[in-house]
Amino acid sequence: MPHQWTADALLGFLVEQAGLPPEDRPTDLAVTFLDIGLDSLAYLQLSAEVVGAFGVDLPAEMPEGYTLAEILDTVNAALGEREPV
């Protein structure tokens, strides 16, 4: 299991699985799903991917103003709190 989720992996998922056009891939993670044209369904898709890949729960409802940087930080903080196996 990865020790950290990367910005590239997050953005890759959004392009490959959540419908973000490659040309709209942001260079800054200080944007929300709405800022990049994705909706709550894309967020639910991402949440399911995060649980499946990392066993980390994101908030059930997409918080208003929740940036990609905050999502990445949430996942990586939870991964960092786990004891190594």
Textual characterization of the structure:
The chain has 85 residues and is mainly α. 15% of the residues are buried. The protein has three helices and no strands. The N and C termini lie close together (10 Å). It is globular, with a radius of gyration of 12 Å. The longest helix is centred in the middle third of the chain and has 15 residues, at 40-54.
In the predicted model, the low-confidence regions spanning at least 5 consecutive residues are none
Would you list the SSEs in sequence order as H and E?
HHH
User: What summary fits the major beta sheet?
Assistant: none
Q: Supply the number of helical segments.
A: 3
> What is the radius of gyration?
12 Å
Mean pLDDT across the residues is 91
- The rounded distance between the terminal residues' Cα atoms is 10 Å
Shape: globular
Classify the helix fraction into a percent range: 40-55%
Number of strands: 0
Q: Tell me the structural class.
A: mainly alpha
Percent strand equals: under 5%
